[in-house]
Amino acid sequence: MVISKSEFMMFLKHPAWLWLKKYDKNKIPIPDEDLQARFDEGTLFEEYAEKLFPKAVKLGYKNNGEFSGTKYYSLPETTKKELNKNTKVILQGRVEIDLSKQLGSLTSIFDVLERIEGNTFNLYEIKSSTTVKPEHIPDLAFQTITLEKAGLSIHKIFVLHVNNEYVKEGNIDINKLSRKTDVTEEVRANIDETLDNIEKAFKILSTKEIPDISPRYLKQGSMEEWLEIFKLVKGDLPQYSIYKLSILTPKKVGLLEDMGIKLIDDIPLDFDLSEKQQKQVEVVKTGERDINREDIKEFLSTFEFPLHFFDYETMSSVIPIFDGTRPYQQVPFQYSLHIQKDLKNNLIHKEYLHTENSNPVLPLLKQMQKDFDGKGSIVSWYKQFEMKRNDEMALMYPEFKSFLQNLNDRMVDLMIPFSKGWFVDKDFFGSASLKAVLPVLAPELSYKELEVSHGGQAQRIWMETILNGKNIENKDKIMDNLRKYCTLDTYAMYVIYKYLVSLI
User: 24 to each of 14, 17, 228, 449, how far by Cα in Å?
Assistant: First the structure.
């Protein structure tokens, strides 16, 4: 039995994840187009970071984004040859070693192996994150174990990651785009724990029976992803299953399971819950909404007409595309604006969508100046997002600073009644997102009917079509779909606002 580095990292998330990968991988969802786009971002940064080693020999072979194919399986032998040739720097080599007859073999692809002298190397892991993350340490510990058991000596261990303070001006400067963080001590301190976990991973694979798939055994931070797998294994969950409790932690799952509780309705009111979870449990038990009309009334009294229901769609890239932007900066390429002059007036809709392969910010700002009234509340959902975009665009184009600051000064957040628990419905499932609230308050409006149904998809499709020149034959239809999606966001806010007004 062979365990790869990526499989070992699955084991660390949840023991059953590794088992499913080996014995029932149809239960592991295939990445959708939006998730694949994020993976591609990581690959893109990797390609740039490799330029820091201009004389390196690159061995790895990817087939449709995955390490596979004939060249992949011959990589250990090819890597060995380069090591024996005293090659200075090797990229994407693969080492495979036998641990023991009782356990099995380990295989690991490394990003960068830099020879210091003789058989001593520095090891680099390229990550598209902006910091070193906790999971990077066992990742590198696994690699170090594999390489050293193969006879190499590892001197220093680094993570090459993104510098999110870098601002693009002209050609990309990879030395400024990336940061090198020494994690040698942290990795060395993790070796014994990683060896112990490797042994546990082989024990998991020694049985043909799937380990307990309960989320209680999950590493913190992977709950949403694991629950998708959990449902594929277990089948559809009851509508108000305990696994649909908001802000669910593995520890809390374990406590509830030990009590034999399967449904939110059966959770005792004295069970240790956060205030948000407590309200969710109460509305499931009663079947009635929890509405604080006084707080909602006071909140709505701060709104000033004309109301501007407003939303941006943005794009981002690990490699900044436009001058004046940073890695992962959210750059607006579209907005929708519904204006209501007063309670009796019909809505006026205005919008902008950038359709040229160029920086969208300046033309978008020029159109915004024309579309916004000089007074009245700007209504958004989670206003910090729009305000942050305005601040960033003001840095790019200082001549718009006063205009954008004025918008921020008038901004109100329609999410507040839901995020603060003034309006709780059991079918929000503890969420205050627009996608959770709208179907409950206005079931006749649905994102599911749209070709573009969420922000990540909008970003991917816009970037593919406008920046990468794909989908040319369907460009007009795609642009229309993007407009429909963004329009629904702001119209949804208007509908929810009207609903709140009706309560008071």
Answer: 15, 10, 15, 33
CA separation for the pair 305, 376 (Å, rounded): 5
How far is it, in rounded angstroms, from Cα 471 to Cα 464? 8
Mind listing the pLDDT tens digit for each residue in 386-440?
A: 999 999 999 999 999 999 999 999 999 999 999 999 999 999 999 999 999 999 9
Q: Which residue has the tokens 């963004």?
A: 486
Strands (DSSP E) found in 44-188: 57-58, 62-63, 66-67, 89-91, 94-98, 105-109, 112-117, 120-126, 153-162, 178-182
DSSP β-bridge partners for residue 310: 337
**HSE-up of residue 99 (Cα within 13 Å, Cβ side):** 19
Per-residue pLDDT for 65 more than 50?
no
Q: Which option is the CATH number for 2-205: 3.30.870, 1.10.260, 3.90.320, 3.30.70?
A: 3.90.320
Cis peptide before 332 (omega within 30 of 0): no
Q: Please say whether the beta carbons of 373 and 308 come within 8 A.
A: yes
Architecture in CATH of 296-503: 2-Layer Sandwich (3.30)
Give 3-state DSSP helix, strand, coil % of the chain, rounded to 5: 50, 15, 35
Cα–Cα dist 88/84, whole Å: 11
Q: What is the CA radius of gyration of the chain?
A: 26
Q: Where are the domains of the chain?
A: 2-205, 215-277, 296-503
> What share of the chain in percent tops pLDDT 90?
89
Amino acid at 57: V
What is d(CA 221, CA 302) in angstroms, rounded to the nearest whole number?
37
Distance CA 44, CA 336 (A): 31
2 bridge partner residues: 105
* Cα angle value 306/307/312 (rounded, 5°): 135
